[in-house]
Task: structure prediction
Amino acid sequence: MKAIRIHRFNDEPRLEDIPAPGIGPDQVLVRVDAAALNPLDALVVSGVARHFFDIALPITLGTDFAGTIERVGTAVTGWSVGDRVICWADAGTGGGFAERAAVPADACVPLPPGLSAGEGAAIPTAGITAWHALFSAAGLKPGETVLVHAGAGGVGSFAIQFTHKAGARVIATASGDGVELARSLGADEVVDYRTQDFAAAVSGVDVVLDLVGGETQTRSYAVLRTGGRMVSTAMPPDEAIGKDRGITASMFYAKPYADRLGELVDAIAQQGVKVVIDRHVPIGSFNEAWARLTSGKARGKIVVSCAPGH
Result:
């Protein structure tokens, strides 16, 4: 089968022909229709992710994917051959950017009939991050105001919609055609960070969702009200600065909420949340998808079609 692999950290991910994986008793074999790229994939390639995951090389990349179950392990209950699923694999094992992937049965949730495989693949990391950063970590309440950085990206596009549907006010930062995208998703105000200083345009917000880090994070403390909350997915905030300003600052990591993926997928399907896809790329043109990811300019999620012939 075809798969996207690296053999050493900092390798350029490449398409290879490898044997289809076997499965253990608690695993299923999924024929992958689509897989979605995440910034985490770049951290796996660079080697940074090995500080958080046990990564054995060579590795097939890809944690978020969707497809059809082809085989079921002897100890698996609740899944059958032919079931359509969304899978969220561990970054240490990956496997999604391939024609077939072996994954623990409990890493799968049903793919609702109303979602395509590409939409399903785009949800796990970005959707869970947006939802639980806002509501579990930040404790967002109706009527509050949230500043979402990188509102046109994969996590940001979900976060805008979740905030809007929860009855909170959402301000987003974006640039170029991302400004109009953020507005169309429900942002009440959009700051074009290329032409406006968000720190001058925004003040007194209840929550900052920092998806950028660096200078953007540093300048975001000033826009929060006393008692406000900053949640970052990009880098650990300086808790001392937060304490001095009377705000709570924390780092968010999505994986502890993996067992709630099914609930989130159902909510997205039922509430008509738009899954924003930047582009669909066949696995044979993976280098195009990788270049788009590493450019940092994607609007929503980049999805790779993995079915044979793509």
Remarks:
- The two ends are 12 Å apart (CA to CA).
- The mean pLDDT is 96.
- The longest strand covers residues 27-36.
- The first helix runs from residue 39 to 46.
